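Notebook, bench 3.
Goal today: get a predicted structure for Primase-polymerase (Primpol)-like protein from Deinococcus soli so we can plan the truncation constructs. The sequence was checked against the plasmid map this morning, with no discrepancies at the termini. Length recorded as 321 residues. Pasting the sequence as submitted so the record is complete.
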Amino acid sequence: MTAHPRSARTAARPPAATAPFDADRIPYLLKQQPQWVMWRLERRRSGDKGLTKVPYAVQDGRLRHAKSNDPRTWMTFTQALDAAQQYGPAYGLGFMLTPNDPLMVLDMDPQVPMNEQHRRAKLLGGYTEFSPSGKGLHVWIRAHVDLPNQKEGTRRHGMELYRGWRFMTVTGRPTEYSPINVPTQNDAFEPFVLEHFPQPGRNRAAREKRAAQPYTPLDAPAPQDVQDLLARAAQLRADTAQKFLDTWNGADDHYPDAGRPDASRADLGLCSLIALLTGKDEALVDTFYRQSPRYLSRPDRQFKWNGHATYRADTLSLACS
């Protein structure tokens, strides 16, 4: 019997998950993404009456807390599934939403009658599954609609709508009318959002200033050439896209160490962004890095990249981890 890590042993003992997940019925689109964690019910503090879902990941053989804004604490689907099966039925599967992917999730609470939940889910046409308790529905849609709270989401009348930096449980227990994959938004989605999640007037100026960002579909193939890569980089958030372009062209300024630009950190930063756009394929990251002006115009980077095999291997490994 495998011993649980110390962090698992010392946490408050949770009840078993009320609804086991069905890994076979989870959409393939989600399984492809390295944004998976486990979760279990815990009391945050001694004396709390309520339980909350706490995300975890297994790293270096140990169970550690996962963070919604730190991809280094996430796992692939296979890793999360293996870990959840190893640690037992108290652990479920979860997915971390990010602002850079086109996924949005409508989470309906039990205070909304179930027949009304089904009506709304059918209207939106998204991949719809039961929550772990079986008392709510989660509707997954590929969409890009502006929200008042850009980092997390918005809540109103027993519903929560999320787009990024948010942990969501996944059960693989779809409704009978749900599509098997996550579809693109239909014509009813944006009017539904505007009706049920009206955006305060104080956010109007910010919304008008912030143009809707295009996005690369999650199931898009790997970039075919440098122009394709650069086009995808331009679809990232404005600040991230600028960081990519500056570092791609040879700058180190976005990656300081002790107040001074650090070329090695910049190499890793650029490779990490290339990895994000290539599905974390080390061979592709290496290929595209060698085609960047950063590499082609800087003999010091060529010497470091080619003269130190360990440096190159370590950089690619960290970038794609």
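The first strand starts at residue 36 and ends at 42. Residues 1-214 form one domain.
Flagging this for group meeting.
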